[in-house]
User: Fold these one by one.
Assistant:
Number 1:
Amino acid sequence: MRSSKVPALLAVLLAGCFAQIEDRSVAISRPLCSGAPCVPGNGTTLNTALQASGYNTIKVSFGDQPLLKSSTSVGPATVSTSLLVNQAQFTMKTAGDFSQVDSLTLLRAPAMSTAGTPDPCAVATTPCPTLATYTKATDGTATQTLVLKGTGVDLIPLIDPATHELIIEITASGNAPGTALWDADASMDMYLTSRAKFP
């Protein structure tokens, strides 16, 4: 994720003013699979299918940007930034749909899924923060598109300060699509606010 507004905020800071930048729609998107459809279907238990494919965790890189810290100093000013999920979305790329999905949750995971640890959040020392959720009973039946609502958790403290990456785990209940293998585009729409002020 790159923001063209970073230089603008820094310029305002150098001018000696209070500054605030808001970007209500910072979007990232990627397919679940790298190439051919990879997630098992055939109506099996969705959570098991996601773990079996190894694509139940996604690594998102935000890049090394000065604004992506909860608080940082720029000269005499202090810059405070938050990044919230507006919504996340899964859009089916293959045949089948999400009509048999009962719930879907995005969590911030401590590590990527491996054969030895298919569910990183199950072994996390502290509970994995919930970033976005979908529940069929309240949100309605999903078809080709499944939309998750953001929970208001600030992503900035969850981004690794060394790698500038965020690992997201997908957990679910209900059944996978009916096709043998399927793929979907996963996207996340976020709300960035960055405020700078002098003491």
Number 2:
Amino acid sequence: MTMELDELKQTWKQTPIQKTINTDIMELIQHKSYGPLAAIKRSFRKDMMIMMIMPFILILTNLNDLNTVFSSIMFWSYVVFCAGIIGFVYYNYQLVRKMEGMDGMVKSNLRQQLDILETRLRWNIIGLRIAMIYFILLTEIVPYFQHYRMLDLWHSFPSIARYGTYAGLLILQYYVSRQVCNRKYGQHIEYLKKLVNDMQ
């Protein structure tokens, strides 16, 4: 009877339950259509497309005065900003692709990659705030060196109205950027973390 019990224990230990659970979780994580990694990749692709299109929209809306556009520090600053966002998003996109292509079911590796992605997304929010402050400063400084109809019109408003608007924009961006980031990425990362924690 003792021998039979020992054999049963040994058989139980050799049953690949852990492997099956981990395989199922990895299939859910890496699903090409509805998996959380696929959702994050879609959001990254949309962000890159929007940033690629925006400079061309600015050019199209100013076709009558292209010389002014191409000599504008505001325009080129925005082009650099868009290029920076594209580069940063592509860098994160590659990290998600790496996670999607992982064949090994190593819990610690997945958790490490998720921590890196979370950290980068926090940097992204901070970077957007810095960029807004930079563009606000440009809006205030550029009219002293270059004259643009829209900026001249904006500067015709009282200083208190302009600064109040800037403060409102910064406060709005502080809350909206967090909510947008959570909707596009945060909720999927939290789901990924839950799945990784469920791995054996």
Number 3:
Amino acid sequence: MDPINRLDQVMQIIGQQMSERAARLEAGVKQAPSNPATRARRPSLTALKSKVRERLESLDPDDPRRSDKARRIFLESVLAWQFGNELLLERGFEDIVTGVQEALRANPAVDAKLGRLLRDLTA
């Protein structure tokens, strides 16, 4: 399976996990809507892949938290790509990313797919 197909699968899982997590967040934390206008102007999947790769390459290879940071970079980038960069400014965004990251970590099969995808992106 190529990295683009894995990215697609991981994005679907992230979307589902994010929706479930957002539904459980405290009142007052808005879930960013996914509207057709946002989807129409978002960059291509190839552009997303390049952006993620660039951000991953900036991580210190000797950092003991590199793996967690890489996952967070990936999630932030994919969520902003999927729902629009304005999501990055939403109150509660950090909580959403943390929740999705925890949900992915709790599912070993999905976490392993994400790990393979991140390795492919940095290879």
